[in-house]
Amino acid sequence: MPAGENKETRKEVEPQPVEALTDRDAEAIRRLLGQGSAHAFQSIEDVARQTGLSRGTAQKVVAFLEDHRFVVPDHEEPWSLRVNERRTCAIGVSIRNDQLIGVITNLRASSVLPPEHRRLSSTGVDAVVRDIGSLVLDLLDARPDKTEAVIGLGVELSGHIDGRRGAVVYSPDLKEAGEPWRHVALAELLEQETHLETVVENDANALAVHEQWFGDGRDVDDFIVLLIGGEGVGCGLVAHGNLIHGVDGIAGEIGHWVMDPGGRECRCGNRGCLERFVSAQAICEASGWPSQQPLEGLKVAAEGAREGDDVAMAAFVRGGEVLGRSISMVLNLTNPSRVILFGPPQLTDPAAEGEPARRFIQTVEEAIGQYSFSFAAWRQELVPKAVDERLGATGAASAALARIITQPNVLSGQGR
Ligand SMILES: [Zn+2]
After folding, report:
1. CA 265 – ligand 1 centroid, Å
2. What is d(CA 306, CA 327) in angstroms, rounded to the nearest whole number?
3. Which of 158, 329, 343, 411 is 20 to 30 Å from 365 by CA-CA measure?
4. Residue 323 Cα to ligand 1 middle (Å)
5. pLDDT-derived band of residue 9, with 50, 70 and 90 as boundaries?
């Protein structure tokens, strides 16, 4: 399907302009959508009660959601409303090295189809934009109900991303003629390519938005998301209910905290950065099993540690200690009540992976307790979660949904 057809589809179902929403309304929508999938609201009063809004404001928010078919009458009980789970809403794309993973989701960022995988034809800017455009068209084509407009595209990747401007400031993974990407206005290029409102966000920040809207951050205002990847460590900070970007989008880059100035050389040019202790690659190297494919290598290292390899087990414990020390620094800095730790199952899923993961998490918790100041560690709760292949793309879709749903001017066709 050519790109133009999608634009037409959007126009056919273009909603009427609605009254602008305030930040408080947006917060109410977040709480309303964050309810479980079986949840229905029995009346406007019920919505008001559950979101803490006045009746008038609840009415305005519900009218907005109904206009876009985000909520629909519950067929079994005609007087009640439920979130329209079947309405396809967003596309999320994750860029990982030379791969794209794409999902098409409903309003809760739940993927309605199996994820699509693509190998990038090259990591140059034009090729990446073209490849994402083609993936988006295929996902639009595959969706079960083509009468509903998809409202936005979210793209996530690691590196220095200015999420508010949708720009890749610096990406060591994506190279144009051998040089890392610098200052690429990726959201703008993708909007031209796909005709979809586009949000580009750092991978850990996109996950933080996902957790805030649909995951383990729904009930707290202050939490952090940590993401341990193949080569790096990312962090998304949510304080007082807001994702913190900082002036240039660097906030949360704890992967390059120098934990040991005499440590191993890092791709950033310094030595002993956090990610040189706790990424999959770092643990593989310290285990004595360096690997070109760190996430695969980590499975081998974990197997070795389970079978009694002391060097491998020491690498898991050392990684946990340095990570826990880093988390204590974040606790002292922002005082969150929850730390959501995403990582490969060999690090974050002791029930499935056994001793190396158990020792890793245990050491993280011990180091947090030892190094945090005063009460900082007492009330925080560590929630380890294993990453799966669709997580990044789901986070990207969430980042798009969260931004676009709360900007009604975009939804009513008055945006860019
Ligand atoms: Zn570094």
Report:
1. 8
2. 26
3. 158
4. 14
5. very low
CA pair distance 304, 288, nearest whole angstrom: 10
On whether the CB atoms of residues 88 and 143 are closer than 8 A, the answer is yes
Contact 285, 297 (CB under 8 A): no
How does DSSP assign 180-226, residue by residue? EEEEE-HHHHHHHHH-S-EEEEEHHHHHHHHHHHHSTTTT-SSEEEE
Is 70 exceeded by the pLDDT of residue 414?
no
What distance in angstroms lies between residue 55's CA and the mean position of ligand 1's atoms? 51
Instruction: Give the C-alpha separation, 120 to 134, whole Å.
Output: 11
Sheet holding 116-119, edge to edge: 116-119, 99-105, 90-96, 152-157, 198-202
Assign residue 180 a region: left if phi > 0, alpha if psi is -120 to 50, beta otherwise?
A: beta
User: Would the CA dihedral through 364, 367, 369, 373 be positive or negative?
Assistant: negative
Q: Tell whether the model's pLDDT for residue 409 goes beyond 60.
A: no
CA of 233 to the centre of ligand 1 (A): 10
Q: Is the pLDDT of residue 10 over 60?
A: no
Cβ atoms of 358 and 366 within 8 Å: the answer is: no
What letter does residue 138 receive in the DSSP assignment? H
Single out the residue of 8, 7, 18 nearest to residue 406, CA to CA.
18
226 beta partners: 235, 341
Q: Which residue has the tokens 């409102």?
A: 197
The first and second tokens of residue 251, run together, are 């906030």
CA pair distance 155, 398, nearest whole angstrom:
10
Report how far apart the first and last C-alpha atoms of the chain are (Å, whole number).
Answer: 23
Residue closest to 102 by CA, chosen among 179, 196, 173, 14: 196
* Cα-to-chain-centroid distance, residue 288: 32
Neighbour-count burial of 46, counting CB atoms closer than 10 A to its CB (0-12 exposed, 13-18 middle, 19+ buried): middle
For residue 85, pLDDT beyond 90:
no
Contact 342, 216 (CB under 8 A): no
150-200 pLDDT per residue, tens: 989 999 999 999 999 999 999 988 999 999 999 999 999 999 999 999 999
Q: Ligand 1: distance of its center to the CA of 276 in Å? A: 7
Q: How far is the CA of 271 from the centre of ligand 1 (A)?
A: 7
Q: Please give the distance, rounded to the nearest whole angstrom, from the Cα atom of residue 36 to the centre of ligand 1.
A: 40
Ligand 1 centroid–CA 259 distance in Å is 10
Token couple for 99: 């791969």
- Entry pTM: 0.89
